[in-house]
UniProtKB/TrEMBL annotation:
The chain crosses the membrane at residues 6-27, 56-74. Keywords: Membrane, Transmembrane, Transmembrane helix. This is Short-chain dehydrogenase. It comes from the Bacteria.
Length: 79
């Protein structure tokens, strides 16, 4: 077991939880639609389309994790 096991598991759990919750929300919205045709896009989605994209959230979590790891090893080196 390497030193990366616990941080990698934590990052994977966070990503899985976000993906699962997003999937449930989309499935609920799809099942509640009253017609087979697409509904109009809400103004919130039009204004913040990239922030509601789960892939963007995965990249943000990865960059946060990477920043924490870089800071940790930089502070541990003691330069």
């Amino acid at each position: 077991m390497g030193m990366w096991l616990i941080p990698a598991l934590i990052a994977m759990i966070i990503i899985c939880v976000i993906s699962f919750v997003s999937t449930l929300k989309i499935a609920k919205m799809t099942s509640e639609r009253k017609s087979e045709k697409d509904t109009p896009i809400s103004e919130t989605v039009e204004e913040y389309a990239t922030m509601l994209n789960p892939i963007v959230w995965v990249y943000l979590i990865f960059l946060l994790f990477l920043g924490i790891m870089i800071f940790y090893y930089w502070s541990k080196a003691g330069y």
